[in-house]
Design goal:
Order of helices and strands: EHEHEHEHEHEHHEHEH
Number of helices: 9
Shape: globular
Strand order of the largest sheet: 1-2-3-4-5-6-7-8
CATH topology: TIM Barrel
Helix content: 40-55%
Largest sheet: 8 strands, parallel, barrel
CATH superfamily: Divalent-metal-dependent TIM barrel enzymes
Structural class: alpha/beta
Distance between the termini: 11 Å
Number of strands: 8
Number of domains: 1
Length: about 270
Amino acid sequence: MMKIGLFTSGYQRNPLEHAFEDAKRFGYDYIELWGGRPHAFAPDLKNGDINIVKKLIDQYEIQVKVYTPEHNAYPYNFMIGSEQMRKDAIDYLKLSMEMGKEMGAEFTLMSPAHAGYLTSEKEIWHRLIQSMTELADYAKKINHKIILEALTPMESNVCTTANDLARVFDQIKSDNLVGMCDIVPPFVQHESIMAYFDKLGDKMKHMHIIDSDGTSDTHMIPGEGVLPMKELMLELNDIGYEGTATIELVTAYINEPRLYARRAINKLKELMN
């Protein structure tokens, strides 16, 4: 039985405690903790806020399985800008891994953001491999794991397909670097979702399960878009996927995260049955 996680990004205008309370109330198995202010920005955690997170984990008996630091936009993106900017982002992600490990997360999640329109494919790939090698080496040093996520072409021009992920794993041989499938990127590109399992093999450790409008990077409640969710759940059941699957409601439902977090897991469980 796959484990279902609640993503906290949509709760950023609410107290973080609401996310833990709701995960417990609504029957989620774990939390995927978004690492942005005001809740779990890595430098704030380092300055003492990690104790708030640990207290919530203990109080609600809900584990943070995945820590997902914000690094797709301002101010951190290791794929764009000068070498000093890249190093700054790498240092931030190393700190994020330390904080992820300290809160008991199994993984820290990274998704390479946009590298800029004038950057060549050769430059993009060199920078990606250089950065992920540094991060994977650090993950090994502290005995932690990185999940690498492919994004949609609307969000990034770096790593957007199962082939891109497989190419990274072919070049970086590390037990501390694994992959995942957010089901929206393959769906909007007319790529096979299930092919991720074939192409990534034992590197395929995590999923973001949400619905899609089929044309944009919008993340919708399961069952409310055009993705064949019920059939996908049957396929995942047939292959015996028992990993983690976070319902990644980002900010489309930020006005009422508690109502939609409840609806999302109820809908997904209906689809799974």
